[in-house]
Design goal:
The protein is mainly β and 439 residues long. The protein has helices spanning 158-161, 385-388; strands spanning 3-6, 16-35, 40-44, 49-52, 55-57, 59-72, 76-83, 93-98, 102-122, 128-135, 138-145, 154-157, 164-167, 177-183, 189-195, 205-210, 215-218, 228-235, 238-245, 251-256, 259-263, 270-275, 281-286, 290-294, 299-304, 313-315, 321-325, 335-339, 342-346, 354-358, 361-367, 372-376, 381-384, 398-405, 411-418, 423-430. It folds into 2 domains: 3-110, no CATH class; 123-430, TolB, C-terminal domain (Neuraminidase), CATH 2.120.10.30. Residues 64-110 form the Bacterial repeat domain.
Length: 439
């Protein structure tokens, strides 16, 4: 199994020791920032620094030369100094002359085994990707960051271009596993669920995450479990999250600023699955019918009179088209697409990646079970994206699904077969998702 470096977060344990020695009684302040803070001790006993999990005194006054020593615990590595100590690079010791106030950051990384990654959604420009992965055998909520804007058109493996691979904490000791299903267009808020099961096969507690501070935000739900936050969006500074609360059966629920704002209690059961980036419309399954809800007018509109699936739908960013799962079985590839007052039955797997409308044509991106595909409403045909993007695919690579498309229609993400590792892995394809179609 390939190992990758990631930032250790609250759920990881790390002991790293920094010791400092220098002249006493100086008038210049040295500040130390350990990264990560949790489980990290930065100490200079004589000077009064005790920073990180061992304390909060992270600065002291010095004169002359101060020598810092970084010692990571077993299983971790010292990644190097930054700030005013950047000239020391990755050396574990660093001498710094205190001739002015200075700040040094000591950076540590850890190696953990990540497999079976999956991305459910991406931010507007594709730079923030959210999903899940098996971390040392347990399914954890994940965030990846890439420099999407600097990538040239072409095919990439996510593991090779990720600038950060972050394992999020659920903040719930009884529900340490989980999945991130959605992210706001600006990439600052994620949403999903926490689970007590190592494979996160059952959702229990609805969660949001502040992706700037990486802190979990528990959402009001039913303590007996079955709660999910499927998608999230912003309208101005307000955060809207759609999903379900499960008191006795799934109740369609919308949270606003992390409090329950709307619930449809008039139906026997239902789920909100997706929301437009401006938080104006949400798609929902209500008693096995396909609906759209207008958040501004508090109005429901039925789109599809009968659907066989309960657990997935995708709405286009402009709210003009919706794809609903038409089966609860992963072995039956079938969805129903509503666009322009028409309903189309499409043989596509239930986990639709994205819906777009362009020049009067609705496009649905996903999988037919074996290949990544793109369906279009004008011809009602399914196009194999391995053929469409054959010129940029490495030899032996097979695109198997599309799970997300960025709002700027530049970044596509999904799963592909990697012949080098003989595994299915997450890919990033930079280019025009409508390549090969007429304007």
């Amino acid at each position: 199994m390939r190992k990758v470096f990631i930032l250790a977060l609250l759920m990881l344990t790390l002991s790293a020791f920094l010791t400092a020695c220098g002249g006493g009684g100086g008038s210049y302040t040295l500040s130390i920032n350990p990264t990560p803070t949790n489980g990290t001790v930065v100490s200079a006993t004589a000077a009064g620094i005790n920073c990180g999990s061992g304390g909060s005194a992270c600065s002291a006054s010095f004169s002359g030369t101060v020598v810092l020593t970084a010692t990571p615990d077993s299983g971790y590595t010292f990644a190097g100094w930054t700030g005013d100590c950047s000239s020391c690079g990755t050396s574990t010791t660093c001498s710094i002359n205190m001739d002015a106030n200075k700040t040094c950051s000591a950076n540590f990384t850890t190696t953990i085994t990540i497999t079976n990654a999956y991305v459910y959604q991406v931010s507007g420009d594709g730079s923030v990707l959210v999903g899940r992965a098996s971390v040392s055998g347990n399914t954890k909520p994940m965030v990846w960051r890439i420099n999407a804007g600097s990538l040239s058109p072409g095919f990439y493996w996510l593991a090779n271009i990720a600038t950060q691979t972050i394992v999020l904490s659920t903040g719930l000791s009884s529900y340490p596993y989980g999945v991130v299903l959605g992210v706001t267009a600006d990439g600052t808020i994620g949403c999903g669920y926490g689970s007590p099961y190592t494979d996160a096969s059952w959702a229990d507690r609805a969660l949001a995450w502040d992706l700037t501070t990486l802190q979990p935000i528990p959402l009001p739900d039913d303590p007996n479990g079955g709660n999910v936050a499927y998608a999230c969006a912003k309208s101005g500074s307000d955060v809207y999250i759609v999903g379900r609360v499960y008191p006795s059966s799934p109740t369609p629920t919308i949270w606003k600023n992390y409090n329950i704002w709307h619930q449809n209690t008039s139906v026997a059961y239902g789920i909100f699955h997706d929301i437009t980036p401006d938080a104006s419309k949400a798609s929902a399954q209500l008693t096995y019918q396909g609906w759209v809800y207008d958040l501004n007018s508090n109005n429901y509109t039925q789109l599809v009179s009968s659907i066989g699936g309960a657990y997935w739908s995708r709405i286009s960013p402009d709210g003009q088209a919706v794809a609903f799962s038409d089966s609860n079985s992963s072995t039956i590839a079938r969805i129903k697409v509503w666009y322009g007052g028409n309903v189309y039955t499409v043989n596509m797997s239930i986990g639709v990646g994205a819906v777009r409308v362009r020049s009067g044509v609705a496009y649905v991106f996903g999988s037919d079970g074996s290949n990544a595909v793109r369906w279009r409403s004008d011809t009602t045909t399914m196009e194999n994206l391995n053929t469409v993007f054959a010129s940029v695919l490495p030899s032996g690579v097979t695109l198997k699904s599309i799970s997300a498309v960025s709002l700027d229609n530049r970044v596509m993400v999904g799963v592909a077969y990697n012949p080098t590792t003989n595994r299915d892995e997450v890919f990033v394809l930079v280019g025009d998702p409508f390549q090969g179609t007429s304007p």
